Amino acid sequence: MLKKHKIRSYQHLTQVDRDRLQALRDEGIKQKEIAKILRVDPGTICREISRNRRKYRKKKNIKNKNARYEADVADHKSYVRRKYAKYQGKKINDNNDLRSYIISKLKKHWNPDEISGRMRKKHEPFYASKTTIYAWLRTAYGQRWCRYLYSKRCYAKRRNGKASKKSMIPNRIGIERRPLGATNRTRYGHYEGDTIVSGKKSGSTAALVVTYERKAKYIDARKISSLSPKKFRDSTNEILEDKKAKSISLDNGIENREHEKIIVPAFFCDFYSSWQKGGVENANKMIRRFIPKGVDLADYSDDDVIKILKIINDKPRKSLGYVTPREIMVKYNLFNKKIPIGEIALRG
Question: What pLDDT does residue 153 have?
Fold first, then answer.
């Protein structure tokens, strides 16, 4: 049985590839055979010859399809085409300072919009728009750095049938009674709360209690061994004690039964309306970037959680004028005199 040649993942042909292509073509080897030798798709060879062969004027009466393919000419034509293509990937790749800056921020898990906005805000001597950075990431130059971007969006599953309105939370106060400053985000100190649980297959009861400041967009979290109402209450209080908090918005999970013992007033979303606390839902998605669904949260230490929060809270946000959430919290003195343990680690 003939051994099949594995086609390599897509990448641009190099000068060495073009030298081999020219030599094989001059020997009369067919395009399909050349593709097998170079381990690329036959269409790649066809396009390469069609685009980059030497073209002759019509008056010489030489058909283009029989025109000679010359590796040096082809490589130069490819360079020129890529240089003046619509995407500006070449611009980033040719500017070492710009390229290094972008890569360093991608490694911190900043997205292209945050990188571009921060460059402009800090008046860096170089600049690339978010569109240019995205375009560069799609090219052969930037593909290796795509792994630092967020994964695909996860859409919430739709529930069939009417939502049940049975409440297991005593003295529940609806979100419509939340202070105006919390609803329209004109005042600091109003938080949203939620939880992240371990995957069912792991058999673990470990979870994360997550809070989100609605105006400053600051995220905090604590790991708990189980999602009991008491542990949720104690962890939430531990987080809010370190901050100048005024209220918290929660969903209707059973872990919120002891909301009356939380140190700030708690307000509850309508049933199956988690979008009413979309900030903390988005915070969960950011954390899931580092702690994927299905894993056992018991495998992550408190230090691991602090490191993740450092990355997230040190990312500049477009909605904050490309200032980081932690910078906002410090600027407006939103921490109590007792600096949170996690914040000490973040500052370090």
Answer: 31
342 bridge partner residues: none
Q: CB under 8 Å to 153, separation ≥6 — which residues?
A: 285
- The rounded Cα 214 to chain-centroid distance in angstroms is 20
Q: What are phi and psi of 197, to 5 degrees?
A: -110, 160
Task: Determine which helix (DSSP H) or strand (DSSP E) holds 14, and give its type and residue range.
Answer: none
Q: Which pLDDT belongs to residue 10?
A: 54
pLDDT at res. 140: 63
Identity of the amino acid at 64: N
Three-state DSSP string of 66-125: HCCCCHHHHHHHHHHHHHCCCCCHHHHHHCHHHHHHHHHHHHCCCCHHHHHHHHHHCCCC
Of the candidates 209, 206, 187, which has an alpha carbon nearest to the alpha carbon of residue 198?
Answer: 206
C-alpha of 50 from chain center: 38
Q: Tell me what pLDDT residue 8 has.
A: 55
- The Cα 340–Cα 275 span in angstroms is 29
CB within 8 A of 273, min separation 6: which ones?
Answer: none
- Compute CA 240 distance to the chain's CA centroid, rounded to the nearest angstrom: 27
Neighbours of 237 (CB within 10 A): 14
Q: Which residues of the chain have pLDDT under 70?
A: 1-11, 56-67, 80-90, 140, 151-167, 337-348
Query: What per-residue confidence (pLDDT) applies to 222?
Result: 96
Residues in the chain, total: 348
Predicted local confidence at residue 2, as pLDDT: 43
Token readout for 291 is: 């702690």
